[in-house]
Amino acid sequence: MQRAKQSRAAMLLIAPAMIVLAIVIGYPIVRAIYLSFQSNMAFNPTTGFFEEGGFAGLRHYVYWLTQSCEQPGNPGVYVDCAPGVLSTDFWPAVRITFFFAIVTVTLETLLGFWMATVMNKEFAGRALLRAAVLVPWAIPTAVTAKLWQFIFAPQGIINALLGTQIAWTTDPWAARTAVIIADVWKTTPFMALLILAGLQMIPQDVYEAARVDGANRWQILTKITLPLVKPALMVAVLFRTLDALRMYDLPLIMISSSSNSPTATISMLVVEDMRQNNFNSASALSTLIFLMIFAVAFIMIRFLGADVRATSRLPATPTSRGKKGQAAATVGGSAAPAASAVADHSSAANKTTSSTTTVQGS
Predict the structure, then answer these.
(1) 71: helix, coil or strand?
(2) How far apart are CA 41 and CA 53, in angstroms?
(3) Residue 346 has pLDDT above 80, yes or no
(4) Pick from 220, 155, 145: which is nearest to 185 by CA?
(5) CA separation for the pair 348, 344 (Å, rounded)
(6) Out of 53, 109, 248, 332, which could bridge 267 as a Cys pair, Cβ 3.0 to 4.6 Å?
(7) Which tens digits make up the pLDDT trace of 118-150?
(8) Per-chain mean pLDDT for the chain
(9) The Cα angle at residue 92 between residues 86 and 97, in degrees rounded to 5
């Protein structure tokens, strides 16, 4: 009975937030899905207005996924779209988007983890370093894009330092490399901040016990740090992956707004289709992007949820160094000799202390 009352109270407390989310997020999604099944607006010379063409079924989804256009005068008959039609850029944009997401998230995770481990140490000026590291992340993306556009200009700093004349904005792979460098520079501090929060939750006694037992740096990293920071690390990777799949403004400002540019992402296709007054087919593409991001998030959350349930079995409030060492051994698994030895060593020390106290009391 008490549990039911608490559940009802919790539902009442979160009800306002859920209503706001339903209005702000739920309605636009439902509206976009509805519009994706309607024909694009066409000009009616009789009325002088643009009017919707009625129910279109899966026509827009076929248009994007198969790059097929409906043959004029033959409704329901689809042929390959002519070169230059926007749908012909869909699959190249999908490949570029996933390429950017995989490369940037990987680099940002590695660099962010390294930066977090440095900022987690005790040294003079640590607070100043943490504040300075966050500056690139605090700069608006549009400003970052223009800054790196000047750096990668034909007469910019990069070509001057390299002593070459690389066409960073026209050569396909050079342009993609430039976008990746700019994105990594801007977003790595975000990853470092989230990972640093996870590192600061690890008790220092665990590291001290491992060093006493003779564990080297590699064993401490692989058997203690990585397992214990994994939940925070996965959350950072999840957020950054979902953000990278929606990349739009950075390649648009740095390189080109064209839908067939070497750095065109799927979000850029949506905006370009809307500029052509094809709001319904743009809604279909937006729905496809939503489903794609939802699928990626679902897979990552399922993986992250399993990890959180595994680590939740660790002791919540360790009272001795022995229990902390045992927690590290539990996370590292049976293949964690250093952490396991720490637990045995600390447990023996606790037993010795307990026996001494008993003798003195008697």
Answers:
(1) coil
(2) 6
(3) no
(4) 145
(5) 6
(6) 248
(7) 998 888 888 888 888 889 999 999 999 999 999
(8) 80
(9) 110
Classified as helix, coil or strand, 101 is helix
| Geometric angle at alpha carbon 183, from 180 and 185, rounded to 5° | 105
Domain positions in the chain? 18-86
Phi, psi of 284 (to 5 degrees): -65, -40
| Residue with the two structure tokens 């750095």 | 263
Determine the pLDDT at residue 308: 42
Structure confidence at residue 231 (pLDDT): 86
* Structure tokens belonging to residue 31: 């509206």
Q: At what angle do helices 226-244 and 279-311 cross, to 10 degrees?
A: 180
pLDDT over 70 at 331, yes or no = no
**How many other β-carbons are positioned within 10 Å of the β-carbon of residue 68?**
17
Helix/strand/coil for 315: coil
Amino acid (one-letter) located at 187: T
The continuous run of DSSP H or E covering 80 comes out as strand 78-80
For residues 228 and 222, give the distance between their C-alpha atoms in angstroms, rounded to a whole number.
10
pTM of the predicted structure, to 2 decimals: 0.76
Measured distance CA(224)–CA(44) in Å, rounded: 69
Q: How many residues does the chain have?
A: 362
Phi, psi of 125 (to 5 degrees): 85, 15
- Residue 46 Rama label (left phi>0; alpha psi -120 to 50; beta): alpha
Which residue, chain included where needed, has tokens 């339903």? 22
